[in-house]
Structure formats: C-alpha cells, structure tokens
Amino acid sequence: MIWTAATAALAIIAIVLAGFLISARGDISHRDTVAADDAHAQQVATDYAVGASTVNFADFNAWVGRLKANTTPALSNKFDATAPKLQEVLTPLKWTSSAQPVAAKVMSESGGVYKVNVFVNVSSTNAQNPEGAQTTVTYNVTVDRSDWKVSDVGGMDGALPIK
Asked: CB-based contacts of 1: which residues, under 8 Å, 6+ apart?
C-alpha cells in the first residue's frame, strides 16, 4: 500500500512537472516569436528611414523610388502626389544627403501593426551649406506585419528634450 501511494504521488509530481515544462516551452516559443517579429519590424523601418534620408537632387526619381519602396499603395500614392513639389524645393537647393542608422525600437504593437521609432545620422550638403552638416533625424514608421509594408511615416514629436 505504501508503494502504491508513493508511486501515485510520483506520477502526480511527474505529470505536474511535465505540464510546467510544456507551458514554459510555449512561453519561450511565444517570446522568441515576438522578439523575431520586433526585429523584423525594426529592420523594415530602418531600411525605409535610411532610404528616405538618402537624397541626390540630380537623381530625384531614385529618391522618390526609395520613398515608395516597400510601402502600401496608399502611402506610395501620397508620395506620387507630393513628388513634384518636393522636386521644386530640392533641385534648386542642390540637396544631397546620406544616412547611417543609429537605432530603432518598437514602441508599440497592436493587431500586427508596429509603431517603430528610428534614428538616423544624416550628412547633407546643399547650395546654402556646401561644406555640409550632420544631423540626427527621427522617424516614426508604421509597419504592418501582414505584408511587412510601411503604411505610414512621419517625424517624432518630443523626440528630443526642449531647451
């Protein structure tokens, strides 16, 4: 009878431990999936921000192509509509710039839509500043997990402290 009770207790302990292990493995798998999706969203947003910040007034259409690359049709159409006005500004200024990524962070995710803050260092020259300047540019990029496309992009309010 003691052996039966001991065997039953060990069986219950084994079942409970197996349940905990299966649950932990599921939690780890979920955590890994979330981390991989966050990393993917950050990479998509970073690639977009670097492309958008890399400008050569002499090859304006290539820049517009980068603005539209990997975006939703709605966002791409917005760039088509504004490109002529942008060209009117950038060409006389003889604007050129190149960008290097600094950091990207997923700020939120809801229903597969990621809000990612991206920071890039931009080196630029133009007719008013031919010796060039370097600035850090901030982007808020919205990425949709369903197709990993950029659906919205803008600047970041309050990214830097106010003096």
From this structure: none
Q: Decide if 160 contacts 88 (C-beta within 8 A).
A: no
In the chain, the amino acid numbered 128 is: Q
Q: Considering its fold, how many domains does the chain have in total?
A: 1
Residue 161 lies in a domain: no
Alpha helices in 54-132 (DSSP H): 60-68, 73-93
CA distances from 25 to 18, 22, 30 (A): 10, 5, 9
Task: Taking residues 25-31, report their average pLDDT.
Answer: 72
Q: Are 114 and 108 in contact (CB under 8 A)?
A: yes
Residue 39 lies in a domain: yes
* Position 157 pLDDT exceeds 60: no
Domain harbouring 43, CATH code? 3.10.450.540
107 Cβ contact partners less than 8 Å away, ≥ 6 residues apart = 115, 116, 117, 140
Q: Determine the structural domain holding residue 66 and report its residue range.
A: 1-155
Residue at 163 is within a domain = no
